[in-house]
Amino acid sequence: STASSSRSMYDVVIVGGGVSGLFCAKLLREAGARVVVVEASDVIGGRVRQDTTFAPWSIDTGGELVHGQNTLLHSLCVQNGWDMIQTFTSFPPDPPYPDHQVKEYVYLGRERRLLPYSTTADPDITTLFKALRDMSEDKGPDRSVMQYLVEKGVPLRVMGLADAIYAKTWGSTLHRVGVREAAREDVKVGEIDNGEDNFKVKGSFSSLLKFISAGTDVKCNWQAKSISYGGPAGAPVSIKNGAGEEIKAKRVVVTVPLPVLRDGDITFSPPLPAAKIAATKSVGMDAGLKVILKFKEKFWPDRVHLVICADSFVPQLWFDGPPGRSLPPGQAPVWTAVGFVTGDQAELIGRMKKEDVVDTFLRQLDAMFACAKNPYPASRVYLDVLIYDWAKHPFVRGSYSHPSVGPDRHQLRLAEPVNDVLFFAGEATATQHEPSTINGALMTGKRAAAEVARSLPVKPYLKSKM
């Protein structure tokens, strides 16, 4: 952190040192405002975090992908010269790619069949993908995606695939994702056209965190416990932590994860509007974790980058390692399988012993890639495991927001300022851009910075630079 000024009051306090809060602070600071970020954890980044010891490359244990080549995040990567690796598409393209170009596969666990995304030979999968694409045009009442797919005649045989490819991408489960909000998000994604390509930053998102936090006054291990904003017009807002330390500011931007707001970790005086409180309880955010296995040999085909696994222990997995990753001289090559798990399956894994998680994941990989000469391809070359469970992070407690059954545009309620004094950012408040992503979080930080700048007493530096 940089040294704090001796002046008694800030222009803006940002509560939460994740991507949205740091980017909001950067923009306001560069516009001339006096800003401080308070973060409950001992490190910045929120749900963007790295492990630098497990593999020869830095591993993103939270947000990992640049979703789309037309995004602010992708532009920042290009502008700053952060090398990227193009990976896979998130959802089967329409029309499909030729099979020889496919890097994405589906695995039907009950049948032990590995099929390319582009397959048109399986009518049940074709029916499922069509139903998911048509959901944005649904005019029926709000209900779960599970109920919608049943109504559309999607066979039970591929309902596990629907959960893995759609609900688990949303961070939840088919019966908890709501059609109305999910369809609205699908339409929004089409309108903003982020692009279908996904990328990884070779050096991890630590480069992003350094860029957006550089020069900003950040106080870690400073958990905001109360925010008092109900004074007369022009009165400062008071933010206090559990030790009774106080910071005063003209404006406050709250960027904490949804469960922190929902569970009342911060006391607001006066209480937040009823509509905003209802929104915190209506927008969903379930468990999420990564199980990363390390191997001394590569046992999967070169063409396989991503596998969506139906009726399986780990619903989504992708692979990493050489040749996409360069190794230090003399370093023995290693490869990783990244298991991404959300919703009910993440809750289950979170309760299991580590050795049982490893054994079950290895059995899945063995079944997927076994042959007569090598019946246990993954188990034979396994080295180590890294598990990061975001539900157990005390200041996060989940993965990311998802469309729920029931709420109607509650993201708008989450994002709305209160009295032109309190402002809100974070992926769950992404009303104009995609939620649940790093880019969405960045865009909410940018939106909140502009709102704050408009609300402050007119100053040339804010009026001209924001």
Instruction: Assign the structural class, choosing from mainly alpha, mainly beta, alpha/beta, alpha+beta, or little secondary structure.
Output: alpha/beta
* Amount of beta strand: 15-25%
What is the count of β-strands? 22
What does the main sheet amount to? 8 strands, mixed
* Backbone CA Rg: 23 Å
Mean pLDDT over the residues: 92
- Count of DSSP helices? 15
Into which percent range does the helicity of residues fall? 25-40%
Assembly status = single chain
How far is the N terminus from the C terminus?
A: 24 Å
Q: What gross morphology would you assign?
A: globular
Q: Unreliable stretches, pLDDT < 50, 5 or more residues?
A: 1-6
Structure description:
The structure is a single chain. By secondary structure, the protein is α/β, with parallel strands linked by helices. 31% of the residues lie in helices and 21% in strands. It is built from 15 helices and 22 strands. The chain has helices at residues 19-30, 72-79, 123-134, 145-151, 159-167, 179-192, 206-213, 258-262, 274-282, 343-350, 354-369, 377-381, 410-415, 438-455, 460-465; strands spanning 9-15, 35-38, 50-51, 59-60, 66-67, 84-86, 104-108, 113-116, 198-201, 217-219, 224-228, 237-241, 246-254, 267-269, 284-285, 288-295, 306-310, 316-320, 335-342, 382-389, 401-402, 422-424. The strands form five sheets. Strands 1, 2, 10, 11, 12, 13, 14 and 22 form an eight-stranded mixed sheet that branches. A seven-stranded mixed sheet has the order 8-7-17-18-19-16-20, sandwiched between helices. A hairpin with an 8-residue loop joins strand 11 and strand 12. Helix 1 runs parallel beside helix 14 (438-455) and helix 3 (123-134) crosses helix 5 (159-167). The longest helix has 18 residues, at 438-455. The chain is globular and about 75 Å long. The relative contact order is 0.19. Residues 1-6 have low confidence and may be disordered.
